[in-house]
Fold this protein.
Amino acid sequence: MLDGEVLTPRQQDEINRAIDIAQREGGLSFTVYVGPAIDDPRAFARKLLAALPDPEQSVVVVVDPTQRRLEIVMGSVAARNLDDRACALAAATMTSAFAAGDLSGGIASGIVLLGEQARHPRSLHLDNP
Amino acid sequence: MFGNRAGKPASNGIVAGQTAGDTLRYRPAVTIRTVLRAAAVTGATFGVVLLGSPAFAAHRDDGDDPGKGLSGLETLLIFGVIPVALFLLIALLVSAPSIARGPRYRADRGWRGPPLVFGAPRDLQLPSGSTPSGAQAIEAAPGGSTSEPASEGGGASARW
């Protein structure tokens, strides 16, 4: 039995495609971690965010199926475009799919939603200081 | 009016008696209906069988040419072994893809397998070793930090 193929390649493609779409839409970079989070999921998500090359512009989604926890954290620049309400909406979208057993579909739709919410009009002199 | 007012307890008693009588009468009605239905079904079945009884006739028609009968072993092979073999073959064909695919995520069984990371650079160092010892680490460090405000730096937390 293969142990690594917990999500099928097609499901992994689905998530990767969603991340691409979201990055193109919102200009933020998205990272998804699926698996057991060490100690507290939120602290784990923060550490993961800090470990990324560009944490300010990044959004980290940690999905822990064993603890049934979902965490969305982001850097300060990303937080300017993604308010807590959008995150709560995405979290509700994802968890309702997770509760139905659809892990990859929930992640994909949540990421796409976050990307859409992060879309903002370009404002001269502010986006490129 | 008058009767109602005068004999309220009495009328209650009558109503109770009526319901009791209804249930008493109800059961025989159901039984009779069941018996009638069974009789109708049986009668109809026998009628059809009787009408078709010439089909059961054992007399030989002109010109028919029955072959020799099957031996016990042949009968067992044709009506026992072959159907069972077909059953097993089809069952195997149905379940083969999922056997070949290996374990998959099931909502009720948690996560088995290494963690997956999407959208991160290849050389990303996962915090504090994402080895399968994660379950022990979770056990060792009970979550006292749930009081951490979700609004710190934005984001959201959820359970399912």
Residues 8-51 of chain B form the longest helix (44 residues). Residues 26-50 of chain B form one domain.
